[in-house]
Design goal:
There is one protein chain. The chain is of the alpha/beta class and about 525 residues long. The protein has four domains: about 280 residues, Aldolase class I (TIM Barrel, Alpha-Beta Barrel), CATH 3.20.20; about 40 residues, Irregular (H-NS DNA Binding Protein), CATH 4.10.430.20; about 140 residues, Double Stranded RNA Binding Domain (2-Layer Sandwich); about 40 residues, no CATH class. It is built from 18 helices and 18 strands. The protein has an eight-stranded parallel beta barrel with strand order 2-3-4-5-6-7-8-9, surrounded by eight helices. A three-stranded antiparallel beta sheet has the order 13-14-15, covered by helices on one side. Helix 1 packs across helix 2 and helix 8 runs parallel beside helix 9.
């Protein structure tokens, strides 16, 4: 019998505690919409009581619409010295105006004594009072029982009593946390079963959840085991990002639920979007994707030489536990790469491009895509560039302007003054040559200003174009400052938002490629809208 489960994503809060993992408010908003499209049930947006960026994110999201997911604000129980109505953390959670609030409290007596420095009874009081105070302000109220498994091993009676107080306070779901990430599966099972018995004895109908960290490399195993025991909610992050060794990896948990455990939820039904979602998070966090990651990694279904390749070509089941297309990935035969066709057809349909399965254009696009990927291009966060690539291959992409040349000059005349940057651009537009110059805050900004200055007289709608994000990634470190770089640019107008990419040994050239794609995409979309009207 299919069982309903809930997926709770904490990438935007717990995931951002990972070393070198940083997201802007705009990045968080874009990831939220992708998680919503993917079918994640709950998205934890941050801790508004401790982080100004989280406050900004929640304010920005109040003007956004999520079709399926519900946004959650995260915080802690009140400080013991503060009454609930004067506790700044609790008030910040209410001010976030999310339909869900998740708060954590102490389950382990050592944390009560050494971290909070209060009595065990006082800890029970702040758990119940905090939840009871928040209860009228939200649709759903979740309680993270921090360090629950460690606390249970040390003092099982007290750990269970803390859960009882959370239930008394009005929690809809109790999430059992392996906060230190040290539990092994054989330890998790009896503890979960004891909690279930405790709830039966109380006659309480409250959902259970699991929140596992990966310090023992068992977060996914512990999560799947808890779900198999009847736990309903699983918390984790995309690609397993999180503090220290990370959190339970949802890109491993969700396909296991979908394809191996007969569980159901919205993201299980949309599991074919898994790889796309995984790579978007990596790209926006400006981190390289783990090619060896199960399910979504580039190497997850890669076969190289000998017996494996021969067998897979006859029957992929011989060396693959699932079909890669089910999670949005592709099979790769490394000695003669034959993958990519299905992805191209999928994207063409998404972009409204009619391509027949046997069209020679598909093969041409696949060949060009592979060559570009070998050069370092990636399109998970730059679908606008990929759409332009496809339309150029079809011969349907209009050439709005032609570059004749550009130059960017940095000069620093005084060590205590910032550098001055000037860019010149020479273009041909409709047979007319245009030569412009502009100043900017660095060479990329100067080029952007000069390019717009040259084109605005021909395409006035470019006034609407905003460049909202700019990321640079060094693709290989062995050449030092001479390494190849990938530039990802995020742009928007009053109607939509899009990403473009450029790759080069020269950062200015890579930036130019992404800038030009951004403008071409804007002009193409305006032309399409005008044709419809």
């Amino acid at each position: 019998m299919t069982r309903q489960v809930q997926i709770y994503d904490t990438t935007l809060r717990d995931g951002t505690q990972a070393e070198n993992f940083n997201l802007s408010v705009n990045d968080k908003m874009r990831i939220s919409h992708q998680l919503d499209t993917f079918g994640i049930d709950f998205i934890e947006g941050g801790w508004p009581g401790s982080n100004p960026q989280a406050v900004e994110f929640f304010k920005a999201m109040q003007g956004q619409t999520l079709k399926h997911a519900r946004l959650s604000a995260f915080g802690s129980t009140r400080m013991f010295a503060n009454p609930v109505e004067k506790d700044g953390n609790l008030q910040a959670l209410i001010d976030a105006k999310t339909p869900v609030i998740t708060i954590f409290g102490k389950s382990w007596d050592i944390h009560v004594f050494d971290a909070l420095r209060i009595t065990l009874e006082d800890n029970l009081l702040i758990i119940e009072e905090s939840l009871r105070y928040l209860r009228p302000h939200v649709e759903s109220l979740f309680y993270d029982a921090e360090h629950f498994f460690d606390g249970f091993k040390k003092n099982p009676e007290y750990a269970l009593i803390t859960l009882g107080k959370a239930i008394d306070g009005g929690a809809d779901c109790l999430i059992l946390c392996d906060t230190n990430g040290g539990m092994l599966p054989q330890e998790v099972q009896p503890i979960v079963e004891r909690v279930q018995l405790f709830m039966q004895e109380r006659g309480t109908i409250v959902d259970l959840g699991i929140h596992a960290h990966n310090d023992s490399e068992t977060a996914v195993a512990n999560s799947l085991l808890a779900l198999s025991l009847g736990v309903r909610q699983v918390q984790g992050t995309m690609n397993g990002y999180g503090e220290r060794c990370g959190n339970a990896n949802l890109t491993s948990i969700i396909p296991a639920l979908a394809l191996k455990m007969d569980c159901d939820c919205e993201s299980v039904r949309n599991v074919s979007q898994l790889s796309e979602t995984s790579r978007l998070v990596d790209e926006l966090a400006n981190l390289p994707s783990n090619k060896y990651q199960p399910y979504v990694g580039r190497s997850a279904f890669a076969h190289k030489g000998g017996i494996h390749v021969s067998a897979v070509k006859r029957n992929p089941l011989t060396y693959e536990h699932i079909e890669p297309e089910k999670v949005g990935n592709i099979r790769r035969i490394l000695i003669s790469d034959q993958s990519g066709k299905s992805n191209v057809l999928h994207k063409a349909k998404k972009f409204g491009i009619n391509l027949e399965d046997d069209s020679p254009v598909v093969a041409a696009i696949v060949r060009e895509l592979k060559e570009l990927e070998n050069q370092g291009f990636q399109y998970e966060g730059a679908e606008a560039s990929f759409e332009l690539l496809m339309r150029r291959a079809l011969g349907s992409q209009r050439n709005y302007f032609q570059l004749k040349g550009f130059r960017a000059i940095n000069s620093k005349c005084s060590m205590d003054m910032p550098p001055e940057t000037e860019a010149t651009v020479r273009l041909e537009v409709g047979g007319e040559e245009v030569h412009t110059a502009a100043l900017g805050n660095g060479p990329v900004n100067a080029l952007d200003q000069a390019l717009r200055k040259a084109l605005i007289q021909f395409y006035p709608n470019l006034e609407e174009l905003d460049l909202i994000d700019y990321k640079v990634r060094v693709l290989s470190g062995e050449h030092g400052t001479g390494a190849k770089v990938r530039v990802l640019i995020e742009s928007r107008d009053q109607h939509e938002q899009w990403g473009t990419v450029g790759v080069s040994l020269n950062i200015i050239d890579a930036s130019w490629q992404a800038l030009v794609d951004s403008i071409n995409y804007k002009l193409m979309r305006d032309e399409q809208k005008q044709a419809i009207q």
